[in-house]
Amino acid sequence: MNAPDVQRAWFDDLFNAIDTTSWHELPRFFHPQVVYERPGYAPIVGLEELLSFYASTRIIAEGKHSLEGSLQNDDQAICWGQFNGRSKNGELLAERFADAYRLQDGLIKQRTTYFFRAAI
Description:
Layout: H1 3-19, E1 30-37, E2 44-45, H2 47-57, E3 60-72, E4 76-87, E5 92-104, E6 107-115
Parallel strand pairs: 1-6
Antiparallel strand pairs: 1-2, 3-4, 4-5, 5-6
């Protein structure tokens, strides 16, 4: 596999774990002191808080991330794409997104998610 294929496989594996609610797989990707910034939430700090967010706080009941592109080097990564799914209250969700990552030892130390909607 060439470098872009390896990078894409890393993102595919990350989002597959999230989309299939395989929370036990997330420590493969996230640093123990991860900080996750996401619109509408206070920063999520630490792996335990991140796992709690995904298991109980996140409004998404089901869905799939479809990546349009990604780039990664030793300590930074970005990806962008579309999420389609359903919220816990049954609302259909369709959202374009972009994520920026800072990596440490191959793990996500910081993640910031951006959504494509009017904010200001």
